[in-house]
Amino acid sequence: MRLLIHDLPEKWDEILRPKAEEVFRADGNYAPCQGCFGCWTKHPAQCFMKDKLQTICQKFGKADELIIVTENHYGSYSAAIKNVMDRTIGLSTPFMTYRKGLTHHTLRYGKKKKLTVYVYGDMTEDEKNTFRLLAECNAVNFGYREMELHFAASAEELEGVMA
After folding, report:
1. Helices within the chain (DSSP H only)
2. What is the pLDDT of residue 163?
3. CA dihedral 25, 38, 58, 80 (to 10 degrees)
4. Where are the beta strands (DSSP E) in the chain?
5. What domain range includes position 85?
6. What CATH number is associated with residue 99?
7. Is 146 in a helix, a strand, or coil?
8. What tens digit of pLDDT does each residue of 46-87 get?
9. Number of domains forming the structure of the chain
């Protein structure tokens, strides 16, 4: 399955729907992670907070490909996307392993195929470099074998980049 997460206005849902089996709009209408680690141990991959991110780990877990569309915020994800990603700690377990020579938590759902990140908005070269490093680290941490990163000057330019 291909999961697409974006922070664009609602009108983009229909434009993005053909690109993935599931499209999730990060609109910020959910609670931030409380850091309780219950999704690790008490009820694996399920958050205790009853909002639309309660089962986001399971959606991530089923997705062999993850596509993230985000506005650039100083070389990082938008706050809405970051909030979604913070709620995915249940994708891993409390146990440790080595991946690419670094210590990481073991993956609850195993290795995945590909992480693709589309970043739009004004960016300096330093911000692009920071985002590249961040996306590479996220790919390793989430267990993706491949990673692609694309930049666009505006949201409207994304349609051409994502074709």
Report:
1. 12-16, 56-62, 79-86, 125-142, 158-162
2. 64
3. 10
4. 2-6, 22-25, 65-71, 92-99, 102-107, 112-120, 144-152
5. 2-28+35-162
6. 3.40.50.360
7. strand
8. 999 999 999 999 999 999 999 999 999 999 999 999 999 999
9. 1
